UniProtKB/TrEMBL annotation:
<dbReference type="GO" id="GO:0035861">
    <property type="term" value="C:site of double-strand break"/>
</dbReference>
<dbReference type="InterPro" id="IPR036915">
    <property type="entry name" value="Cyclin-like_sf"/>
</dbReference>
<dbReference type="GO" id="GO:0007131">
    <property type="term" value="P:reciprocal meiotic recombination"/>
</dbReference>
<protein>
    <submittedName>
        <fullName>Cyclin N-terminal domain containing 1</fullName>
    </submittedName>
</protein>
<dbReference type="GO" id="GO:0007283">
    <property type="term" value="P:spermatogenesis"/>
</dbReference>
<dbReference type="GO" id="GO:0051445">
    <property type="term" value="P:regulation of meiotic cell cycle"/>
</dbReference>
Length: 331
């Protein structure tokens, strides 16, 4: 479902086509993504989301744009870097814990050296994540080692091709070579496919363009948006995940995709926002209150006014022939 790449490097919306895939394939893809999402939510760790900071995400986005890579590569690179850094941070913490219990004379050189190495090679790892993501997206047009080395040299980092390959290998080994994981964009696009098939009155092609903009926004404002969701969850006693379980919500890409699409629908046509929310509920099983809350948080941080109410919306009950409900996100 990827679009063509234009001169600016982003997917050309005019070439993006919906409805070209048969319904059985859509159902299978939706079921697969729902299963992957449930696994990610179930295995979410305490450090999840720690490396989706604005400066890091902005760096990846700008670098991807400079190298003329499509949007999917940007999101993939951020997710690869996030998972890698969380693994490294957990490894450092596990080595540091025994040192704390030992005498003050202990010399914790091992974990300190690992920490220093992680900090000193962060830019290299970030660039390697972008390069790996480009290889997943473009088999015929990837970011070459020469391009990467020239970029690093311009920043004052002198690395060899061997060190660049070692960096990629270190990331792959740390993640057990499991780097081709679904991004939020994949969830957004498959849900838009289903909405189009179900006869949603809002143009899914127009929604797609707005969704890309809002998805960028959520990545860049990840921390404040999710903090506002946590505050709303506690203050209003909504069904949103609370306390320790809130960490898992940060890894719930199905919920994120639903919120993105609902917010996009509100921007495109407020009259049909309720219908879109109802369609999304029938597809994913996600409560309409959660969808409304998420879209409210996105729009509040994005436009700051004229956002949907935080209570359950007045939904338009319109007849539709939805695909088999494949996603069952438990909220």
């Amino acid at each position: 479902m990827a679009g063509a790449v234009g001169p600016s490097g982003s997917a050309a919306l005019s070439d993006f086509k919906f409805g070209a895939v048969d319904t059985q394939t859509i159902e299978d893809a939706l079921l697969h993504l729902a299963q992957e999402n449930e696994k990610a939510v179930r295995e979410a760790r305490g450090q999840a989301g720690s490396f989706r900071e604005t400066r890091i995400v902005e760096f990846v986005f700008l670098l991807s744009e400079q190298w003329c890579l499509e949007k999917s590569v940007s999101y993939q690179a951020v997710e690869i870097l996030e998972r890698f850094m969380v693994k490294q941070a957990e490894s450092i913490c596990s080595q540091a814990a025994p040192v704390v219990r030992e005498s003050e004379k202990a010399e914790p050189w091992s974990w300190r050296a690992q920490k220093e190495e992680l900090c000193s090679t962060f830019v290299l790892r970030l660039v390697s994540c972008v390069q790996l993501a480009s290889k997943l997206s473009f088999h015929y047009k990837i970011v070459s080692n020469v391009t990467v080395l020239n970029f690093l040299q311009a920043l004052g980092y002198l690395y060899t091709k061997e060190e660049l390959l070692e960096s990629e290998l270190a990331i792959l080994k740390s993640l057990n070579f499991q780097i081709n994981l679904p991004t939020p964009l994949a969830y957004v696009e498959i849900l838009l496919e289903v909405l189009g098939y179900n006869g949603c009155l809002v143009s899914v092609k127009q929604l797609h363009g707005t969704c890309l903009t809002l998805l960028d926004l959520v990545y860049l404002l990840h921390e404040p948006i999710y903090e506002s969701l946590l505050r709303a969850s506690i203050e209003n006693s909504t069904p949103m995940e609370q306390g320790g379980k809130f960490v898992s919500m940060k890894e719930d890409f199905m919920l994120l995709a639903v919120g993105i699409i609902a917010a996009s629908a509100f921007i495109q046509n407020q009259e049909w926002w309720g219908q879109v929310v109802e369609h999304l509920h029938s597809i994913t099983g996600i409560a309409t209150e959660n969808t409304a809350e998420f879209s409210y948080a996105i729009l509040t941080h994005g436009v700051g006014a004229s956002t949907p109410v935080r209570q359950q919306p007045g939904l338009h009950h319109l007849a539709a022939r939805p695909l088999r409900t494949a996603a069952t996100c438990n909220m």
